[in-house]
Design brief:
about 40% helix, alpha/beta, two-stranded parallel ribbon, Tscrpt_elong_fac_GreB, about 160 residues, Tscrpt_elong_fac_GreA/B_C, elongated
């Protein structure tokens, strides 16, 4: 990887929980089902066997991806941020556009981004534009809908 995979402790815990659930629960149950289905005879028309093998490949692929992401992860706790006057990883930022529409978002790792919940990935165009900004700064960002200018209204970090 050419850039670090920053992630919050909460995001890392979510990746680990998904890995553990797949590896310890779902995969063993599926292997048991496949073994049972294979013992039923003709595998070419055995839906349980065919679906089970396909699902097992999906799980193994996901486990590999999760493993690589966790290994490359650099866990940063936003509560430990010493400079709370500027926007850095883990900051919850309130921004206002040209029409004074405010929106609040949190800069998190790319693996935990969820725009519907206001979680913006660290390498997203908006997050890159906001990095290092202070309250009152104006930042211009190119978005798919066109170029927009945002003013930083508030910056918050979780308490330690």
């Amino acid at each position: 990887m050419d850039r670090p995979n920053y992630i919050t402790p909460t995001g890392y815990h979510a990746l680990k929980a998904e890995y553990d659930a797949l590896f310890a629960d779902e995969r063993p149950r599926l292997v048991e089902t496949i073994a049972w289905a294979a013992g039923n005879g003709d595998r070419s028309e055995n839906g349980d066997y065919i679906y089970g093998r396909k699902r097992l490949r999906e799980i193994d692929r996901r486990l590999g991806w999760l493993s690589r992401r966790m290994k490359a992860a650099k866990v940063l706790d936003p509560a430990q941020q010493p400079d709370r006057d500027r926007v850095f990883f883990g900051a919850t930022v309130t921004i206002a556009d040209e029409d004074d529409n405010e929106r609040t978002l949190t800069l998190v790792g790319d693996d935990e981004a969820d725009a519907g919940k206001g979680l913006v990935g660290w390498n997203a165009p908006l997050a890159r534009a906001l990095r290092g900004a202070s309250i009152g700064d104006l930042r211009r960002v190119s978005l798919p809908a066109g170029e927009r200018e945002y003013e930083i209204v508030a910056i918050e970090y979780p308490s330690a």
